[in-house]
Please model this.
Amino acid sequence: MMTTEDIYPSRTGGEATVIPRKDPIVHPRPQSLIGSEGSGESALAGGPLSRAQLDRYEESGYLAFDSILSSDSLREIQTRAQVLREAAVTESLTDPEIIREPGSDEVRSIFAVHENDSVFARQLRAHGLTAIAEQILGGPAYIHQSRINYKPGFVGREFYWHSDFETWHVEDGMPRMRAFSISISLTENRAQNGPVMVIPGSHRHYVSCPGWTPEEHYRTSLRRQELGVPPRSILTRLVEDGGVHSPTGPPGSAILFDCNLMHGSNGNITPFARTNLFVVFNSMENELVAPFSGQPPRPGYIGCRRPQKLG
Amino acid sequence: MMTTEDIYPSRTGGEATVIPRKDPIVHPRPQSLIGSEGSGESALAGGPLSRAQLDRYEESGYLAFDSILSSDSLREIQTRAQVLREAAVTESLTDPEIIREPGSDEVRSIFAVHENDSVFARQLRAHGLTAIAEQILGGPAYIHQSRINYKPGFVGREFYWHSDFETWHVEDGMPRMRAFSISISLTENRAQNGPVMVIPGSHRHYVSCPGWTPEEHYRTSLRRQELGVPPRSILTRLVEDGGVHSPTGPPGSAILFDCNLMHGSNGNITPFARTNLFVVFNSMENELVAPFSGQPPRPGYIGCRRPQKLG
Model:
């Protein structure tokens, strides 16, 4: 793998610092793809998101949707997520893609469902999502990661504040901020069952975290985040600027957010389970290189190293 | 201490069961106190709560107030709560009334502030609160417990579902359900910083919990509840009936709830600390007896054994 300049260093042994973002948030479509009109506006022509939505996304780093799937698609995905989870429990599956809760056998996440399951493969490559990805990323995209997150009732644990990009950069070798995630609720997202909380505007600041990355960090970090963690002083400053938002909504509602948006979630002692489908789209021009930690890359089910162009 | 029949057995080694409540929720004022009119209605005459509020309290087991204190009282209490906490930290106080967070030195609670601090002593004996207590409890009342709960930002932990009465009965010897609590927010109570969650209607059902009470249980239970915990199947049923409510509001807002209302709170990873003043009023006719666990009673700063009539 080629060597790439590290413009977003983190966990390199220094103090925590804030580095300004060096990449666009909505990426311009290259001239060669725009066609004869050639104006800036035409970069958006035909994309599913409106100018107002793109402006909001630039500003806040996220968009909330009341409903992002047809009711048929939603039902199919909900059923399939349930089937996969039950199989994991009743058959005591030990596939590495299945992550358990710390301190219990409850299923926390199942990774790479777009590769290992035909229902998710079809649904996540559907035209609508691909068109959004191409519009935000300014050209062809692929799925960097997919997973179902099950936050069981009663024992769902918190997930501390983090930027996904920080981890993808350090541990997977994602060179630039040209990716985003969609989290689709498969159960009702309530204020009380540990919904995703975001810090609006935090996507403009890269928090370079203290410490180093130990070998095979992913084996524990997917259960409980302890490295790549921003200090409280910086989180406090980001929250003073942007506040904390936690969109709620019915099954099928969704939140689309920039790869560098600071987010996390509280625990969940309610009986209401919280299940979501999480999928990351990355630009075909932003393929992974060698991880900036200097460690071997994480497995392909966590960060795809053989991109297949969508659409 | 005299022996009293245990009509609410719990942690006596049996299976978890649900026992119907055997006590009123709003307690009638004894005839001797009513005066010449003598009708049922006159029991409420002059009380601060309206008929509609009392009906709602009977039905749901709680009342939420936007503001329960004058702004002067609120400011005085807020300042004093801050002073007490800072003293606990900077002077590394080891008073038993000061409870720390599990796994850190952060202050979780300070007990018995109505006894040990002149500001709280005066504020908590103020006429308004006493009048509410006498109205709900049907006569003279005293303060069974008071405490400031600090839920610090970033590290505030969850507090699992429980009925306060279950613990007060088993560990303190409170014979009957003739007590209630007021939790007054001293900081903003947001959906995201671990507000109190209640299960409306759960106050009508007493959950007799499995297990036994170990000696000196309070030394750990105030940091993390592990006994007197209702099973998930019963919690699920209570929530199916009543849902989960979590009133939010500005500093000075309050929630008043029955001693047997099932409640809990999620953790808090936000920078927003959550501080509340918690005070328990008990009827002078419901004084503590020997704990039903058969163990020695907990210290007086947790459950008052020398009642002083309010008003």
Residues 71-90 of chain A form the longest helix (20 residues).
